[in-house]
Amino acid sequence: MDAIFLQILNGLDKGGAYALIALGLTLVFGTLGVVNFAHGALFMLGAFCAVTLNRLLNISFERVSETEKDFLGNPRVEKVPYIEQWFGPDLAGFLLDWSVPISILLTIVVMAVIGVAMERGLIKHFYKRPHADQILVTFGLAIVLQEIVRHYFGANPIPQPAPDIVAGAANVGSWLGLGDNVIYPWWRLVYFLFSALVIFAVFAFLQFTTFGMVVRAGMQDRETVGLLGINIQRRFTVVFGLAAVVAGVAGAMYTPILPPDYHMGMDFLVLSFVVVVVGGMGSLGGAVLAGFVLGILQSFASMNEIKSILPGIDQIIVYLVAVIVLLTRPRGLMGRRGVAEE
Asked: Is the pTM of this model over 0.85?
């Protein structure tokens, strides 16, 4: 029972990442009709926003220590972050410790600008082009972005620390009366709660605001909304920026779980497209549901007991589910009738 509960927890935090990326993909496809293969690169760029902020906070200068000496008795030269000189050791220590959560503020601004620039500079020229053209151009853009990141940050993963207060593990079993055998990392729990909060905020924005209502109407019938005198194109540009922000903050907060490298976006992109297809093209609820379901299934498939019976099942379980869903329900779990059924 403990092992099952642990796998559910593993699936929820992994599913949270899948759901956030798939949510952005679905927003873009549902509003613009664009298959954006660069969306995984946006997840990667968000992760490197966290890396960039951490490096900026760690920019240091050298000074001669007044207390420490080397083995020859000479004063030791030490590196001191500029923020420690500017704000004092206490605030500087807080900023360094909480650099990953704080990086969300930087990520929101950077990703919104990148998202709007992508839509205005490139994507808008491919609205009426075949999906094959959209895939080719956005896939090429993703490769360009990851090579730029590799040039400036290198090819090796760059670990990012979680705040000290949530760096350890939580005794989840004792909370639920399951004993002391269910120990789970705090940051993974934080990430699941964070992903749930972002998903709720996006759905609330689309459901309870006038802007969101117009966007949802545009997803159903773009031409009719345009005939009402509403500049639906401008709103769709904002939606593209919103999708980029969602992918970016998902990547930034995932860095303590998976040290970012330049190809992490491609790794998540393929799985997230499978999530979108399984959930239903254009269905926001389906993307979220499929993200968590596939995350949990992948987690269970990685158990040694399962792999001993079905070797390699953890590598193909997501694609196996996608094949079954497409054969039995081509429009996906919550897709609209007529979408992807031709």
From this structure: yes
Three-state SS at 234: helix
- What is d(CA 170, CA 115) in angstroms, rounded to the nearest whole number? 37
At residue 182, what is the residue type?
Answer: V
DSSP string across 187-232: HHHHHHHHHHHHHHHHHHHHHHSHHHHHHHHHHH-HHHHHHTT--H
Mean of pLDDT values over 325-333 = 85
Encode pLDDT of 29-82 as tens digits.
877 778 888 888 999 999 999 999 999 999 888 777 767 776 666 777 778 888
- Phi/psi at 255 (5° precision): -60, -35
Contacts of 241 (CB under 8 A, 6+ apart): 111, 112, 113, 115, 116, 119
- Please measure the distance between the N-terminal and C-terminal CA atoms of the chain and give it in whole angstroms: 44
pLDDT in tens, 193-213: 999 999 999 999 888 888 888
Q: What is the Cα–Cα distance from 317 to 340, expressed in whole angstroms?
A: 22
Report yes or no: 195 and 250 within 8 Å, Cβ to Cβ. yes
Amino acid (one-letter) located at 138: T
Distance between CA atoms of residues 213 and 244, nearest Å: 20
Domain extents in the chain: 2-57+82-328
What gap in Å lies between CA 83 and CA 256, rounded to an integer? 22
